[in-house]
Amino acid sequence: LSTPQVLADLLRRRGIDRETTIKFQLGWDNKRITIPIWNDYGLLTNIRRYDLYKTHPIKILPYKPGYEATVLFPFKALDTSEWTVLCEGEMDCMLLHQNGFNALTPTGGVGTWSHSWDKYFVGKKIVICFDVNDPRDAGQRCANRRAEELTPYVKEVRILRLPLHERGGDVTNYLHDHGHSAAELQELISYAEVIASKKDDAPIKVKEEGGKLVHEVSLGQASSSSFYHKWIRTNCIVAGKDLAPFLP
Fold first, then answer.
1. Exposure string (b/e) for 166-175, b if CB count within 10 Å is 16 or more?
2. Maximum alpha-carbon separation in the chain
3. Within 13 Å and on the Cβ side, how many CA atoms surround 143?
4. Close Cβ partners of 124 (under 8 Å, ≥ 6 residues apart)
5. What residues contact 71, with CB distance under 8 A and at least 6 apart?
6. Where are the beta strands (DSSP E) in 4-82?
7. Other CB atoms closer than 10 Å to residue 61's CB: what's the count?
C-alpha cells in the first residue's frame, strides 16, 4: 500500500484492486509481489513471490529454498459448502474472489495434487477452470485427471473450458483482459460439462485411521480406478468351495 505505482500496475496488469490487496495482505519486496500463505491452523507457512513485471524466467518463487511445499490457497475457501472454482494460480484465484466466486488453487502449479487434500472436498460442488490452449493442452488434461480423482468425494464436479483463443488463456484473460463480467462467467459455469453428479447419493465417508485415509465405499464403488493405491472399507459376503483344484 506504500507503493502506489506498484498498486496501480497490479490493477492494470492483473485486475487486482486495492480491496483485494488488503484482503489477501499482498506486499512488495522491491522486486516481486508477496503473497502470504496460511495453513489450516492459521499459521503463516510461506510467502509466495510473484514477478509482476516479468523480469525473471521463473514467474513465482517461495519465500526461500526449503519453503516449496504445495498447499491449497486460500485455505479458508474450504469453509464454504457452496460452489468452489478450482483454478490455476494465485493471481487468478484472487481475481475470482474479487468477482464474488469462492476459489482455490494449489500453490505448486496445475499438475500438483496431494491425496491428503481429498477429504476436504467431501460433499462439495467443484468447477475446474484451468488454462486453455497451453502447450500440449496441459491445463485441460490436468482438469480431466483432477475431475476423475475428485469424483468419489464431491457432490458434483464440472469442467469449464474458457472460450478463449490466446495461448494459455486463463481466468484473468477472460475477466480482466477481455472485460467479461462475473455474471457472464457464472453463466458459463451453469452450462459447463458435468463430469459427475451425486444429487441423491450421500458422499463417500473418509476417515483418518493410523495415519491413513480410509474410504468407506459400496462394493460396486470399490472397483473404481479412483481408489487405486488407496485404502478402502466395504461390506461384503465372501463365499467359496473347497472342491479341487480350488482353494477356499
1. eeebbbbbbb
2. 84
3. 27
4. 81, 84, 153, 154, 155
5. 37, 39, 45, 46, 106, 107
6. 27-28, 33-38, 44-50, 60-61, 72-73
7. 17
- According to DSSP, residue 20 is labeled H
Closest C-alpha among 86, 107, 121, 114 to residue 38: 107
| pLDDT tens series, the chain, 248 aa | 999 999 999 999 999 999 999 999 999 999 999 999 998 888 999 999 999 999 999 999 999 998 888 999 999 999 886 799 999 999 999 999 999 999 999 998 888 898 889 889 988 999 999 999 988 889 999 999 999 999 988 989 999 999 999 999 999 999 999 999 999 999 999 999 899 887 545 567 888 888 888 888 877 677 676 788 889 898 887 776 666 665 55
> How far apart are the C-alpha atoms of 53 and 191, rounded to whole Å?
35
Which three three-digit cell numbers place residue 55?
523480469
